[in-house]
């Protein structure tokens, strides 16, 4: 045994984090950038003391809400393509419980984050301590057990020496492209302060190599055979392609063999929309062009995608009678989906290898690609020019509210601004290198369809979990990852009310973010789902006890925090506000009152949702019958 150094468990933790590095394509960088904290009992005297004494290179940020700061950490890791992370520490009890939603968000999106929730006493002598509950069947159960199902790796530290094996295991998971996700290490609060003679070798510089997984010859042979046998193959770009950095390879592959390219939310901006063969997002929130190409394709080449229901339109987006699937993914599990032929490999490497094998091949899409793209571009232009009229929209927007209710909203909110027009105006006004972030509500659909990306890796949508409240916190994480970029959080009033506390952290630390707040006074997306399946408008609108539409001054809230605020209710005002916000050094909020039912709707898509099988409402009965018919065409596994 070598020399030892006497440290507390918490001090050993911080010393270890400072010595973790990652190497990708020969480039070596520190892996842990810093740590977000909300101090309380259980972590302030342990991890807090260790950070105060010697944080090393770790940047320390004081969060305002445990879920919010964890979302910032998750967004940072996503924006850094999983090659750098923040750790997150919370106090025992409710502080740790607040991490559950964020952990689930990271798990659903395969994003690395190190969660360090404090735990109850290992000694159990003071039990039950403040914020500790008691279960009669086991005193070993604590709040942190709720993090088990939403963690890729979970452990509880009750003795200082346990930290060593636990951290090594956690970082193996955090740096694995196939299994990346949240690693949770719960440290008992008395253990945090207990000392141990740690071997100095534990704190040596440790490099984690993220080597690119190579495809086998057998896999490449099978993939080549599939592609050569296909007439209309389609590239479906998922998040794995973005993390792999496969932009140039995808463009070259698509150009050489005239294969159209469509994308998932996670894959969007891997290749910019200005690329000629790019047809936009696919599935429930897809463009008419992408969904038409998906319907016509006889081979789908899925690259780093999980094939979620929104990507596959609940397994109705493709002609399963004729369409086969070739799945390139670092995860063997994902490669098996939809009975696909798996190529378990890094996207960049696999596309390069296939490109070298397909000399002489051409798809038969021909001019169809440019025709589909032109038709969609015309539809987008139409949506951008829609205007409200007291006697109806011109051109009409599909919706479920009567004209009378829409007029009521226009009067209550003092606006006639359609959501689609506002979003496209923002898209035209921001600098192309800016990053846009969103997560939930109707805005992800409008962004997937209408937000045209002109620069790679500038679109950040958390849609693996579609977590309301991610948007503002996520913007802070992105700004930390790209401090030289403007960051725009597209957030609905519902999501803003759910969680916006990290706006204060952004202001406090001087990390400028821009909040684009779309206020339609309600949970508009779910109201659409409700009414589109036969229901009435039931508890999804924001109305007061007298039944009147609420008009909340969100700008005043942000102004009170210290942000620069704007109120913009016309396209011209929106563009002017964006231009002025660019000149600010402080975080901004642009409040836009938009009319409900003015978001874009679906194009040749379907979403499988639960509809009541028994109802007295004929509209609900009809919705159930429509679902039953669609299920006949959906793939069942």
From TrEMBL:
Enzyme Commission number(s): 3.7.1.22
Protein family according to the UniProt entry: Belongs to the TPP enzyme family.
Record NCBIfam families: myo_inos_iolD
Every Thiamine pyrophosphate enzyme central domain range: 221-354
Alphabetized PANTHER family for the sequence: 3D-(3,5_4)-TRIHYDROXYCYCLOHEXANE-1,2-DIONE HYDROLASE, THIAMINE PYROPHOSPHATE ENZYMES
Lineage: Bacteria, Bacillati, Bacillota, Bacilli, Bacillales
Residues the record lists as binding Mg(2+): 493, 520
Cofactors demanded by this protein: thiamine diphosphate; Mg(2+)
Thiamine pyrophosphate enzyme TPP-binding domain segment(s): 440-591
Name of the protein described by the UniProt record: 3D-(3,5/4)-trihydroxycyclohexane-1,2-dione hydrolase
GO molecular function, one term: hydrolase activity
PROSITE patterns referenced in this protein's UniProt entry, alphabetically: TPP_ENZYMES
Organism of this sequence: Saccharibacillus endophyticus
Cofactor note: Binds 1 thiamine pyrophosphate per subunit.
Domain of life (superkingdom): Bacteria
Region of interest called Thiamine pyrophosphate binding, as start-end residue ranges on this chain: 442-522
Top EC class, one word: hydrolase
UniProt catalytic activity: 3D-3,5/4-trihydroxycyclohexane-1,2-dione + H2O = 5-deoxy-D-glucuronate + H(+)
Function: Involved in the cleavage of the C1-C2 bond of 3D-(3,5/4)-trihydroxycyclohexane-1,2-dione (THcHDO) to yield 5-deoxy-glucuronate (5DG).
Pathway(s) where this gene product acts: Polyol metabolism; myo-inositol degradation into acetyl-CoA; acetyl-CoA from myo-inositol: step 3/7
């Amino acid at each position: 045994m070598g020399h030892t150094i006497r440290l507390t468990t918490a001090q050993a933790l911080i010393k270890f984090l400072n010595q973790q590095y990652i190497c990708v394509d020969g480039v070596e960088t520190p892996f842990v950038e810093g740590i977000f904290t909300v101090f309380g009992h259980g972590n302030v005297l342990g991890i807090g003391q260790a950070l105060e004494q010697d944080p090393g290179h770790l940047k320390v940020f004081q969060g305002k809400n445990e879920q919010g700061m964890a979302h910032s950490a998750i967004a940072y890791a996503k924006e850094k393509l999983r090659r750098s992370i923040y750790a997150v520490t919370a106090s025992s009890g409710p502080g740790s419980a607040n991490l559950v939603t964020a952990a689930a968000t990271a798990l659903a999106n395969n994003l690395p984050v190190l969660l360090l929730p404090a735990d109850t006493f290992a000694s159990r002598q003071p039990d039950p301590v403040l914020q500790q509950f008691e279960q009669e069947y086991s005193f070993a159960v604590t709040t942190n057990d709720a993090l088990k199902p939403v963690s890729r790796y979970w452990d509880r530290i009750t003795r200082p020496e346990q930290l060593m094996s636990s951290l090594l295991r956690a970082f193996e998971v955090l740096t694995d492209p196939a299994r990346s996700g949240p690693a949770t290490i719960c440290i008992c609060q008395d253990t945090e302060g207990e000392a141990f003679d740690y071997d100095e070798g534990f704190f040596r510089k440790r490099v984690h190599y993220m080597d690119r997984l190579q495809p086998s010859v057998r896999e490449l042979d099978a993939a080549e055979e599939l592609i050569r046998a296909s007439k209309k193959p389609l590239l479906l770009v998922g998040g794995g392609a973005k993390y792999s950095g496969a932009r140039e390879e995808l463009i070259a592959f698509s150009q050489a063999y005239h294969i159209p390219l469509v994308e998932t939310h996670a894959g969007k901006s891997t290749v910019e929309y200005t690329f000629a063969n790019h047809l936009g997002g696919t599935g429930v929130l897809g463009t008419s062009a992408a969904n038409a190409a998906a319907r016509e394709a006889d081979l789908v080449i899925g690259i780093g995608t999980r094939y979620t229901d929104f990507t596959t339109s609940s397994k109705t987006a493709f002609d399963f009678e004729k369409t086969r699937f070739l799945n390139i993914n670092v995860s063997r599990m994902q490669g098996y989906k939809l009975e696909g032929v798996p190529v378990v490999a890094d996207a960049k490497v696999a596309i390069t290898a296939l490109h070298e094998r397909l000399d002489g091949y051409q798809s038969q899409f021909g001019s169809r690609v440019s025709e589909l793209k032109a038709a969609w571009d015309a539809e987008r232009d139409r949506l951008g020019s829609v205007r409200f009229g007291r006697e109806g929209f011109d051109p009409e927007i599909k919706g479920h509210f009567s004209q009378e209710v829409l007029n009521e909203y226009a009067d209550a909110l003092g606006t006639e601004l359609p959501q689609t027009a506002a979003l496209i105006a923002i898209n035209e006004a921001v600098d192309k290198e800016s990053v846009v972030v969103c997560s939930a509500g109707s805005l992800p659909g409008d962004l997937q369809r209408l937000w045209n990306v002109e620069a790679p890796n500038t679109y950040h949508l958390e849609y693996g979990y579609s977590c309301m409240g991610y948007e503002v916190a996520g913007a802070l994480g992105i700004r930390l990852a790209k401090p030289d970029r403007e960051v725009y959080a597209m957030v609905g009033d519902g999501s803003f009310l759910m969680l916006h506390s990290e706006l204060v952290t952004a202001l406090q630390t001087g990390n400028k973010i821009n909040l684009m707040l779309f206020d339609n006074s309600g949970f508009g997306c779910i109201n659409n789902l409700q009414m589109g399946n036969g229901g009435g408008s039931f508890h999804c609108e924001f109305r007061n006890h007298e039944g009147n539409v609420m008009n909340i001054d969100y700008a005043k809230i942000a102004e009170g925090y210290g942000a620069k605020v704007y109120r913009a209710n016309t396209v011209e005002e929106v563009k002017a506000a964006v231009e002025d916000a660019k000149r600010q050094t402080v975080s901004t909020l642009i409040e836009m009152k938009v009319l409900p039912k003015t978001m874009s709707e679906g194009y040749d898509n379907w979403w499988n949702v639960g509809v009541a099988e028994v109802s007295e409402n004929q509209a609900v009965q009809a919705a159930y019958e429509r679902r039953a018919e669609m299920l006949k065409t959906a793939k069942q596994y």
